[in-house]
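seq as requested:
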Amino acid sequence: MQYGSYCPQMEDVSAVGGEMQYDAYDLGLLQQPVIDRRTQAAEGRARLTLPHSASQAAPRSFVQPTQRVERDTEPIEPARYAPSHFTYDGGLVARSSSSQNELASSPAYKANERRHHYFGNLDHQLPQENTVNERYQEDEERHVADTVPQRITNSLNLPHAPRMLVQGIELVSTHELPDRFRAIFPFPVFNAIQSKSFKTAFQSNDNLVLSSPTGSGKTAVLELAVCRTANIFPVGQYKIVYQAPTKALCAERQRDWQKKFGSLGLDCAELTGDSNASDLKNVQSATIIITTPEKWDSMTRKWKDHEKLMQLVRLCLIDEVHILKEARGATLEAVVSRMKSIGSQIRFVALSATVPNSEDIATWLGKDPNNQHLPAVRERFGEEFRPVKLQKHVCGFQSNGNDFAFDQTLSQKLPNVIAKYSHRKPVMVFCATRQGTQSTAKLLAEWWAKASPMGRYWEAPRKRIKMIDPNLQDCVDSAVAFHHAGLELADRHAVETAFLEGSVSVICCTSTLAVGVNLPCHFVVIKNTVTYAGGVGMKEYADLEVMQMLGRAGRPQFDDSAVAVIMTRQEKVRHYEKMVSGQEVLESCLHLNLTDHLNAEIGLGTITDAYSAKTWLTGTFLYVRMKQNQNHYRLEGDIGSGDLDERLDRICNRDIELLQEYELVTSDSKLETTEYGGAMARYYVNFATMKVFMDLPPKAKVSDILAALSKAAEFQELRFRAGEKSTYKILNDNPLMRYRIPVDLALSAHKVSLIIQTVLSSIDFPDEEKSRKHRAQYNTEVAIIFQHVHRLIRCIIDCQIQRDDPVSARNALMLARSLGARVWDDSPLHMKQIEGIGPITVRKFVNANIKTIEDLERMESHRIEGLVSRNPPFGAKLIDKCRAFPKLRISLSAGHNSVSKRNEGVILNMKAEIGFLNEIVPVQFNRKAVYVCFLAESSDGRKLHFCRISAKKLDKGQDILFSALLTSSTQSVTCYVMCDDIAGTMREASVQPKLPLSMFPAPKLQSADDSELRGNKEPRKSGINNSHPRNFNVPARGHSKLKTCWE
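struct tokens:
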């Protein structure tokens, strides 16, 4: 709980001449000494406290601010201001909505102070603003409505909860809630925004769209909706989904709501890109699921696998719904439209920053599941409801140069901007690049050092701060710092601490500091509105990023106002003025990757033909906006003419044809996803990435598959940064690099491939001085790559299995094991999977001719200890760990009486026996469940059988029966068995049946055309056109370009 300064002056008519009733808590507090009550209030443990000293803030004007409260009902007329006869001189402060900047209050305290004022001072004054230097919490979005006091009318029936009006809105007491929910809202009165939304959020089942400024208390409205759901559904019979755009916001919400709702038996589970298998289990038992749109999209694409879970969802909470206008907003739009269409009774509550067309969001969501033709209830609040008034300025500058030259121009203008707007208070400067943060910090530090004491706009450091980075140390001596992800963690923490303590007054940082780290300031500068984005060069910030950066301005515990300046090109000024003033119309981005979402809906059965595709499209936000602004939505191949109905037809047909062209959707009258389209949806693969995977050549080598992975659209942002290429050239020339890049390093795919191979080969990152500064970024990008690469390689495996290409599948499985273990599967490095063995230890073992885990297991413990210079019982423990490593066995045989002759050749019934050599079946390894893959192929490259089995089912081994078609007496059958994601586990067995030549058909001489025709398979039931050039019997599109993986 944070305490601050200002609440509108209020009059309690019912209290005149009467006694206020105290509850037991207030009576207990009245028995305590004043000093104890003051201490409790400072710690946030009391509702009863003494008035704190007034700040130096000037009295507020009597002028009533322009009211901007909108709802699809009659407007509310603001009440005239009338001074109270019981106003306290020191500034009566009532608690409202758990504000960041409020003082505690109680009925007892109010009554006491009103009496004191009535008898002691009859002069009427406006309330003064007060401040308390308390710790600020970023994500508590509740506030005291910052407005001019209003005349108060009738009192509530409850004598301890007087009726109050703010901005013409009657404030609602938390006593309106059932007792069990009151602890969730640790304040007696909801603020204006929450009170206005109370009836819809808590007393109805209507969908709700709430649009208001940052920090105005929107989160409490979501909590009211949660309470409504918990109040009307039995425990265990419902689930609630909360979606937010960032993992940082999801993590914070999970921590906050687990504390609040956990006592009610409502467990919260976080489900984001960082979640693992155990987190998925938690989701099954949790009541509130906190997730990102991307992760929930992935879950709902498998809706039939999670049907029971999905049917329990009764409430969907959407935070930051205004991300609809960004590229990733298409995912949010698709998943919400999907939840609307699956037939369950889901209520939607959406929060948005101030946008001019929130009514379009309301139209899209609909009033409720049974009245989609009516809009949702809409509440819109203006900037006057912001707890800390934010002055926003957009400064445009002329530039004829490139973005880097323009950035230098802005650097020279920055001191004047700080001098004009900073008010000598803490400053945060957001820069486009990491290098830009350093150069800007250096410039400001030099400007400060050269200025006279009177000409300095911030104070000197209060104490000496030690930094690891010498450039940072030079800047910090002038109370200036830079901050970005490439800094050492210790330096980042030191900068954050120094800024909070006041030893650093200016931070130059990248946009990443706008989320996750709580560093509010008085003055924010966005120096240039572009950032570097790899292959596309410089691009504009996303609107959400800009709003997050602006949101750093405002310190409720210190100020009642803040300032933000956006420095941009002159031609961009109007765009940012509209954005920061809430005048920019919210548009859809679903059309930019509609193909991906259509494929997912076809897989779910929501779309079965072009007509149902158009029907689904009419339920999206895209359709709502196309009805009003058709010209904004121009697609490739769309001429943009005709009425809306015709355009929807063209859009749907275009994307369906694209999916059919790449064999992702059938060509039958009823649309269905093929196995390839199913894999694309199942593994959440981008359509652009899927096209690369579908163009893999037959019998693809490991290098081909690695190149395809590296070209995935998911990695396109991993570009070479300034100064990095020389480091990656060193890595590329390392003799341990298995697949060198034979061309100049330029593409994101080059960097991704080198990073993957550096990890798998355990290559040491260069330690030269010029490379050392890139290590942190390298580690960050390793984490990003390995977050995505596992599902991408799974998609490739599934596609190659479906194509009956065992060579490609075997190589993809080998790469999957390597990626899972982070070592090459066929190298001695696979011994690193044993706890206690690192790269240096592996090298010592290899020098002693120990190259596998089996070799190590056969060693004597004392010899192991001698090789690695370790003391007993290190060797014995290591051998025990080796014994627990999964060791598979396989045998293969052909039945003597299982041969049948066909026109094409001989059918042979085969039996493979698989199991573990371990005394105890390794159901888990390195805390992960063990799964076994079995692959059988003929020597001429045909897939015979594939299956995946849990290790739990192999405690007594298992026989796998399959048939093999042999077309010549020289052919053989080979079977492979391996553990998923565990390197060094593959084992194989081969059989070459000794069958007489007479059993096989005589070879025929065929023309190339005849051979090609005979190679074509029978059409699949799915309706795929197998004459498509991507079939392996003919050259696939683009294969002629694959002479090298990197051309």
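Residues 1-23, 34-161, 1008-1047 have pLDDT under 50 and may be disordered.
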